[in-house]
Amino acid sequence: MSRGRIRAWCVIAVFVLALPGTADAYIHLGFEGSGGTRAIKWNAPRVRWYANNGGVPGVTASQFQSELAQAFLTWENVPTASIAFEFGGFTAAVPFDDDDLSVLGFQSEPDMDRVLGATSFIVDVFSGTIIESDVFFNSIFSWSVAAAGDSNRFDLRSVATHEIGHFLGLGHSAIGETELRPDGGRRVLGSGAVMFPISLGRGVIADRDLQPDDIAGASDLYPDGDVRDDTGIVSGRVRLNNAPVKGAHVVAFSPQTGVLIGNFTVADGTFRIAGLSPGPYVIRVEPLDDADVDSFMDPQGVNVNFRVTFHPRLIVAPRGGSSPSFDVTVPAK
């Protein structure tokens, strides 16, 4: 590929994320380059996208485009983020062609029988700028555009909203709980983010609406106006036996509002959770255990062999700044 470009992938399966490199802490996608991990993002005020002109049973091409437009608008309407989208038209081009068009469309991938959809990127490795991003929706599944959902089909707008989060440059969120099913998959017991990597199931339309973790991620990646002056950050590090813990999931919980916003530690055990309303937070640290580790980041070096731990004191996110760094020491399992 030219211009120092690479293609990377995100997969959402019944959901997984597989992006070479690591999640750049705060639920952002990134890759390893000179000087460390670099987040990827669009560097244009308005991003143009195209819809493949092929439909599937139950979804015409015009319905497909309409549902995608609503999903894009959901992210565009985040008041504290500055990103906009423009429909470029219908096209016969298909996702994942290296054609400088960001195409969304249906494709049949029977070998990916747990994958509802996937997002790929072509990225300028020198700047981290997204040049092209394509999204496919797996047509081996039955899809619905019904306003209230269809209990026998997956809701297109919900899955599109998740995928467009990846399209923006967001990774998966670990705010959710699942249980193993007899077939080896997982059933979602509760989810606190559209970007949780496992589907809520057929007929469910809850993921049409963003949750605080999603909004914080978009706002931190594409900050609008005074958002960084009006919100706060908590930051620290997680340690086990005096060694840093990579890949720990750190959650800030507001006892005042009930909001949960999460993050992951990087290789040196540090974390940063931005976009917090000023005030006190309960800090909880947990191992990744609700999906494969590589649904969230490069699994190399990730430690899951520790117990859930709460920081013994409330941590205050100050308006327009960051809390003093603090340590959370976790015990081994």
Order of helices and strands: EEEEHEEEEEEHEEHHEEEEEEEEE
Biggest sheet, in brief? 6 strands, mixed
Strand % is 25-35%
Instruction: Give the spatial strand order of the biggest sheet.
Output: 1-7-8-6-4-5
- Briefly note the CATH topology name of the largest domain: Collagenase (Catalytic Domain)
Q: Quick one: CATH superfamily of the largest domain? A: Collagenase (Catalytic Domain)
Unreliably modeled segments? 12-27
The assigned CATH architecture of the largest domain is: 3-Layer(aba) Sandwich
What is the tally of beta strands? 21
Mean pLDDT: 87
**What form results from the Cα inertia axes?**
globular
Describe the SSE topology.
Elements: E1 5-13, E2 30-33, E3 36-39, E4 46-52, H1 61-76, E5 84-91, E6 103-107, E7 115-124, E8 130-138, E9 143-144, E10 154-155, H2 156-168, E11 176-180, E12 186-191, H3 212-221, H4 227-230, E13 232-240, E14 243-244, E15 249-253, E16 260-264, E17 270-276, E18 279-286, E19 309-310, E20 315-317, E21 326-329
Helix pairs in contact: 1-2
